[in-house]
Structures are given as C-alpha cells and as structure tokens.
Design brief:
Layout lengths: L1 E6 L11 E4 L4 E9 L9 E7 L4 E5 L5 E7 H8 L1 H25 L3 E2 L7 E11 L3 H6 L11 E10 L5 E11 L6 H21 L7
Parallel strand pairs: 1-2, 4-7, 4-8, 5-8
Antiparallel strand pairs: 1-3, 3-10, 5-6, 8-9, 9-10
C-alpha cells in the first residue's frame, strides 16, 4: 500500500513508497488501497456524491489525531441552534458545487448528470472538523491552513456498468486554508484542496501496490 504525506512546504518527489509532496495551501495524508487515482486523468464522465451519512463532528488535536468527538453532524447542528440547522444544507450544496467545479476544471474526468455518468465518485466523510474562525483570522485567512476545516474519510470511484472499483483511497486527513466562515472553510478543504489541488497533481503518481 502506498502512503503519502502531503505538506505545503515539502519538496515534490517521485517515489514509490512513502513520499512528501508540495501543494499550495493544503496538507493531507492519504493511502490508496485499491486501484489508482489515474481515473481522474481519463476522458470519462462521472457524478459526485459527498456522503455525510456517517459524519461525526470532531476536533483534531496534536499530530492530526482526533482529540474530541462532538457527535453526529445533524445532532451537532441541532445543538448549535436553528441558524446552524438552516445553514447546513446550504454549506453542503456550496461544497458540492465547488468540488464539481474543481473536478471539471482541473481533471480530464467530467462531472455530469447521474443518468449520463460512467462512474460514481463517492467521498465518504467520516470525521469533520469545521476549523476555527479565530485562528483563521489571526493568520492570513487566504494563504494558511491554520484554522482550516479538516476531514477524514474515504474516496471511492466505481464504474457503474460493471461495479468495478477504479480507486479506493483512505483519507486520514486533508485540510485547506482557513477563513472566517465555516462555509468557505468547507469549500476550500473539500473542493479546492482535495479535488482542485491534490488529485490533479498526484493522479498520475498514486496507486496501490
């Protein structure tokens, strides 16, 4: 299995084992367990599902380990009040739109309607840290990951006709830049960092052993 550490200030190396990579305004750690990310470099169509059905809200602490579990995302939103409940569907819609935009812009794969798609791209978010507004604004809110949202989960790409898995990648964590709104932090992490930077840059290099 190939493990990858991706750091914003690291040197880009082409290697077959654990590797450090450079991406602008994003950090993460992944393991491709089956197939390859190269499917994103192929002229295929897909539809995107961002799956929050098992998402729990957490706080990541030192060494990117979960330090606090705040419970299922829907229950968490209810505990924060009506405005949070109303904002959550909008946040998910905006994150979906940004992710689809970045896939279409940065990859050969193109997102289309489900009825026309050859593949399903499913991002399962198991743990979500919304980040921190105060930390984001203390640093440069548009060029620093401090305070950015962070996710843990799995990215699975499946051919619809055959059910064959083209890629199964475990996401230990990925984080985008900070911002003063949760909405923007989610869009930066899922849309810009994961689908707009990491996948296009490493799609030709990362595969399971």
């Amino acid at each position: 299995m190939k493990k990858l550490f991706i750091a914003a200030a690291a040197l880009l190396l082409f290697v077959t084992g654990a590797a450090a990579y450079e991406v602008q305004n994003g950090t993460g750690y992944f393991e491709v367990e089956k197939g390859s990310l190269s499917i994103f470099k192929q002229n295929v169509t897909a539809y995107l599902v961002i799956d929050y059905s098992s998402t729990e809200v957490v706080e990541f602490g030192k060494k990117n380990q979960i330090s606090k579990n705040l419970g299922p995302v829907d229950a968490y939103m209810e505990s924060k009040g009506q405005q949070w409940v109303e904002d959550w569907p909008i946040m998910k819609e905006n994150t979906q739109a940004r992710a689809e935009e970045e896939i279409n812009k940065r990859n050969k794969m193109q997102i289309v309607d489900k009825s026309e798609a050859q593949y399903e791209v499913r991002l399962v978010i198991t743990h979500l840290d919304f980040g921190n507004t105060g930390v984001s604004m203390f640093h440069n809110p548009f060029a620093n990951e401090d305070g950015g949202a962070k996710i843990e989960g799995r990215l699975i790409v499946t051919e619809i006709a055959s059910g064959a898995v083209a890629c199964d990648m475990r996401i230990d964590w990925v984080q985008g830049v900070g911002n003063y709104t949760q909405n923007q932090r989610m869009m930066y992490t899922v849309g810009t960092a994961l689908f707009g930077k990491f996948i296009p840059k490493f799609a030709g290099k990362l595969k399971a052993n």
